[in-house]
Amino acid sequence: MSHEPGTDHFKAAILEILNETFASHHGHYLDKGTSLFETLATVSAAEASIPVSVSCASIATQVNHVIYYLDVLAHDLVGDEPTDVNWNAAWNIGPVNDDEWSALIARLRATADETTALLAGTTEWNEDPAYGAVSIAVHTAYHLGEIRRALCTIQDRPPNPGQS
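Below the sequence we write its predicted structure tokens.
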């Protein structure tokens, strides 16, 4: 790790913020029980498949996009900048069934763990990992907010006629 003043504190802080964003409350900015994985644990495959509006993505699509973003940033962190990045593809996911939803969440967890481990193992905190780590935290927190807002909208909708 670079021995610049504050580098150790930055690394510890960003890793704790990422842990709070993905997994568990530390009291920095989320309420208890509202991390990404805690939130997704309350979402059914049917709910995850509902677009919030004609122009808004479903929760499953948001999750797929976060996975893609993490994967691209992880490659960049190790100096393996992907040449075939297709952001539109990250937004193309249809309705998911229970198995597909579980697999998507498992893929998100694996990708988040992998990316966090890469950051934890970073010894040279120059511009790339610092900006990458902050971007991951901010971007994921943004999508967590979008997912929580979508969930409120979806769960407050009356059922469609003929559905039970």
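The mean pLDDT is 90.
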